[in-house]
Write a structure and sequence with these properties.
Order of helices and strands: HHHEEEEHHHHEHH
Shape: globular
Distance between the termini: 40 Å
Largest sheet: 5 strands, antiparallel
Oligomer: single chain
Number of strands: 5
Length: 223
């Protein structure tokens, strides 16, 4: 399957005409593009299940929640796709963002709940060697680059500002991303590339899963 540049043409037009009247007049074009994206999502899910256990694939709705936003435009100008790993033993997931000149792949933990964030920080504080081994692997970095995410300004409560791994402990998010061009998205081998990139990031997800499904003594939280 190969996606068409018509997806980006539609979003460029939508960006300039982000209103209900225009959207309804062009609903058939949106539906066609969305159907292709759904097919892509299911195909990627099948590929991921070759080396992971995916619970479900989700395509986010085009409609924006404007209740608490200053931006009152009603429609998103991108597609967002996510593949959830099977909980509770597997944590994290995979994400694809398709937007004109702003597409990317992502993986990791965008908004971990407080107890999960504390558990990750505790593990890093105790022993960061396995995580750093994954993140510093040259092949891994050649694909995914450096770990990203917002940070607190100083040491989180209960942690030493002079800890040698304070750069990792300070993080509030643990995210990895790969930027993609429009041509990347529409390339003939795009699905194969997604599979390859996500396969390479799986050790990071597996590490985080092990941390978040065990207690501070390493005992499993689930049967």
């Amino acid at each position: 399957m190969r996606l068409s540049h018509k997806i980006f043409d539609f979003f460029k037009e939508l960006k300039n005409n982000n209103n209900r009247v225009w959207f309804l007049e062009n609903k058939s074009s949106f539906n066609s593009n969305q159907e292709h994206i759904k097919i892509l999502g299911e195909m990627v899910k099948d590929r991921l299940n070759n080396f992971d256990i995916i619970d479900k694939f989700k395509l986010f709705r085009i409609y924006r929640d404007v209740r608490f936003s200053k931006n009152k435009t009603p429609y998103k100008t991108h597609f967002g796709l996510t593949w959830h790993r099977m909980k509770p033993k597997l944590r994290g997931g995979y994400y694809l963002h398709i937007e004109n000149k702003k597409s990317f792949l992502a993986c990791g933990f965008w908004a971990p709940i407080p107890q999960d964030l504390k558990r990750i920080r505790d593990e890093i504080s105790f022993d960061s060697n396995e995580l750093k081994s994954i993140l510093n692997d040259k092949e891994f970095q050649s694909v995914w680059g450096k770990l990203k995410g917002d940070e607190v300004k100083t040491a989180p409560r209960g942690f030493d500002i002079n800890h040698p791994d304070i750069d990792l402990i300070k993080k509030k998010q643990y995210i990895l991303t790969i930027n993609l061009t429009n041509n990347d998205i529409c390339s003939e081998n795009f699905i194969e590339r997604i599979e390859e990139y996500f396969f390479k990031v799986k050790p990071f997800l597996d590490y985080m899963s092990e941390v978040l499904t065990t207690d501070e003594n390493g005992e499993p939280l689930f049967d």
